[in-house]
Amino acid sequence: MRLTLGILIALGSLGLLGFFGPSSPAPLATSARADSFTVDPVHSNVLFKVMHNRAAYFYGRFGTVSGTFVLDSEDASKCSLAVEVAAESVDTRSERLDQHLRSPDFFDAKQFPVIRFESTEVEAESPGLYLVTGDLTLHGVTKSITIEVEHIGTAEGRGGLVAGFHSTFVVDRTDYGVSYGAGGPLGSDVELIVSIEAGKN
Length: 201
What we know:
By secondary structure, the chain is mainly beta. It has a single domain, classed as Lipocalin. 4% of the residues lie in helices and 52% in strands. The chain has one helix spanning 95-102, and strands spanning 35-39, 45-52, 56-62, 65-71, 80-86, 90-91, 114-126, 129-138, 141-157, 160-172, 186-200. An eight-stranded antiparallel beta barrel has the order 1-4-5-7-8-9-10-11. A hairpin with a 2-residue loop joins strand 7 (114-126) and strand 8. The radius of gyration is 16 Å and the shape is globular. The two termini are 32 Å apart. Residues 1-31 have low confidence and may be disordered.
C-alpha cells in the first residue's frame, strides 16, 4: 500500500510501550560505506493528526521514541531503519484523554506496548528523498506500507556526526483494529509526522 507524502508519526488512534519503555531495536547491518546511527530521543518527534467531530483537526504526540538507521549515501539499497514508539507515552495535554487512548478502546498499551516500523526496502527517488517500504506494527497487527522519507541533512553536532530525517504519511487506523469512534466523531485516517535526529554510532 503506497501512502501519500505529508505526514510521520501521529496516529489518529493511539497506544504503545508500557511502564518500562520501548525495547531497543536490534542493530542493523552495515556495508563498508554505510554509517550507523542511533535515534536521539530528546530531539526526535512523532506527532499525529486526526479529524475530530468532523469539524477540526486534533493533534497529539508520543513522548518516547527510539531506533536505529543505516545511511549509505552511495547505495540506497544498503540503507535501513527501525523506529519504535512507546504507546504508553501518548501525550495530548489531557491526562483523562491519554488514559482513554492507552485503553483497549484505542492502543491497548498494556497488551501492545510498542508501535514499530522496520524497513524492508529502500529506493532513492531523488537526491535526499527516499521511498521506504517496511512493516508497520500497531495494536498487534503488522502491515507493509510505503512512505517517502526526506534526508534533511548530516552535520557535526556537539557529540559528533548527526543526521536528520522527516516523513509525513497517513494510516487508516481501522486497518489495525483500532475502530473506536470511526465513522462518527473521530476520523479513521491518521496523519503521522515523524521527525528524527540521530547520532552516529
